[in-house]
Amino acid sequence: MDQHDIFTAHYRLLQRNQAARQRLILDPKAGLNEYFGSGTVPEGQFQVKIIPQEPDTITILLPSPIEEDTSNEALDAACRRIFDILFTDGVGGYLIPDDSLTWVLRDMRSNILSHSQGTAF
Amino acid sequence: MNSSLERKITELAWRDPLFAGLIERNPHQALAQIGVEVPEGVKLDIRRQRRDTLYYVIPPYSEEPDQADSVINQMDLWQSAELFVWIMPQKLKVQLLAMRQSFRRNNP
Q1: Contact residues, A window 69-88, toward B, CB-based 8 Å cutoff
Q2: CB B27: neighbour CB atoms within 10 A?
């Protein structure tokens, strides 16, 4: 399989296989390691949460204050930028709230691509 | 001052611990408290982003046969903690409009 299709294949599995979907939702790190290979998710003090799109559900991801600054200025800044993700068949991907997680995601994808070398999915 | 629905929800979620707990536990009740009427049949999933958490958005479950040529769009949203993010099926746009209108009507 083309490496670029590795991630698409995972989304397709999650669209069709309710058991795999539930395992990922209940334990995202274990679910990612199960599908993409052991050690896919790097070690570290961070969490992974799943946002499952549903045909009857509106999801809101609220902003998070910087260093607990909840002043009017901070609120105005956080709410000045509103992002709408409207999907038809579905969209997949990550929200990365903080710069500190940038390399966590990049390392994870590198691990996936490394695992895929010569591996049939 | 920004008087939008997004500003009101965020303000209360940041400053009022009772509201912050309620909106994750029972979002319909929390929104009703601020004058938002949620159309029947619409479910809500509202979370305050944590800065130590990656959020993996996955497409909906589908019982329709797989179409090999269908496209699953992919996105990454960096620095999302500084954004108010809505995720919803396109067909619920009208329901969101109704929610916004009720907030405006009930908070003149």
Answers
A1: 70, 72, 75-88
A2: 20
